[in-house]
Amino acid sequence: MAGHPQPRRPAGPPRILPLLLLLLSAAAIIPRGDGQNLVTEDVTVVEGEVATISCRVKNSDDSVIQLLNPNRQTIYFRDFRPLKDSRFQLVNFSNSELRVSLTNVSISDEGRYFCQLYTDPPQEIYTTVTVLVPPRNLVIDIQKETAVEGEEIELNCTAMASRPATTIRWFKGNKELTGKSEVEQWSDMYTVTSQLVLKVGREDDGVPVICLVDHPAVKDLQTQRYLEVMYKPQVRVSQNYPVQGLTREGEPLELTCTAFGKPQPTDMRWLRVDDEMPQHVVVSGSNLLISNLNKTDNGTYRCEASNAVGKSHADYMLFVYDSRAGEEGAIQSVDHAVVGGVVAVVVFAMLCLLIILGRYFARHKGTYFTHEAKGADDAADADTAIINAEGGQNNSEEKKEYFI
To answer: Is the pLDDT higher at 376 or at 348?
Structure first.
C-alpha cells in the first residue's frame, strides 16, 4: 500500500476565483470610495412588511456588484446568495443593478446595508433601512365614569410599544384640545401617555372624547369614550290658555311646567312667591289652572323641580286686566286710525292748493309790474303822474291789459 501511488481526485469546477472574492469581501475591509458610480436610496418600512434594497451602477463596466448586511456579511454576490436567510430574495440582477427584497422585516433588520462595486479602486456606498413599529395598543382611562356639571375630570390615553415615539392628539367632538404627554423608552420601543384635564358642563353629556394617534406607521388609529354628565333640571313655564292673549277678569288661565335634567327630575311643585296660593287654584302634576281670574290673583307663580344634582325653578308673572281691556284697546286703535286718515287727507289737500296758487301767481306777476305804472316816470308833478298812471285820453290804447 505504501509503495502504491495515491490516486488523483477528479478535478472539480474552477471555483477558486469566486470563493477567493467571497473570502476577501467577508474578512477584509475594502477601502471606502466616494461611491461616484453607485446609486442607492434609504428605505423606510413598517415592521412585518417588505423592504426592497437596490444597488445601481450609473456607468456599467461589467464590474461585480455585491450587497452586504449591517454585520458586513455578504447577502448577494452578483446573483449568488451565500447568506442562509431565505427572507432575502433576488428581485433583479444585471450589470447595472442588484435589487433584493427582504420580507417580514423586524427591528433587528434595521441598520446600514452596503453596496460594493469591484472597480479599481473599489467603490462602496450604504443605504439605511429604518423599521417603523405602530403602537401595539391604544387605551383611554377616565377618572370618573359619571361626572357632575362643573367638575374637572382627568382622562389618560396610552399608546404602547411604538417606534418612533407617537404623537397623541385629543378631540372633544370636532374641537381639538391640548393634552400633556410623557414618553417612556423600553429598549428600542416607546410608550407615550397623554393626560387631558377637562371641565365638563351639561352640553358635554353624550359627547365623544377622541384619542387619535399621529404616527408614520399607521393611519386613522383612534379610540374614544363618551362623556356622561349629570346636571340639575332646566325648568320652563308655558301659557296654554289664553294663547298669546291678555289675562282678563272672569277668564281662565292654564300654565304648564316642563323640566329636563340628568337624572330626570322626580319632584316638581307649584308655589306663589311672597304670598299664599289662592284656594281656587287647581294644581295637577305639572299643570296649574285658574278657572275664573280676578285681580287678587296678581303675583308671581313659580315652578320648582329637583333631582339628585340640585334644584331649579322658573317664574310666571300674572297681571289680570279688566274684562273690557282688550275691546277698549281695539276701539281706541280704530279711532286713532280714522283720525290719522282724516288729517292726512286735509294736509294733502292744502299742499295741492298751495301748489296751484303758486303756479298762478308765477305766470301773471310780470304783467302787473310792467303796465301798472307806465307813464308816471315822465310826469312833471305828482298829480300828473297819478293821472297818467290811471290812464288819460292820449294814452288810452297803451293802458290796456291783456290776459292770456
So the answer is: 348
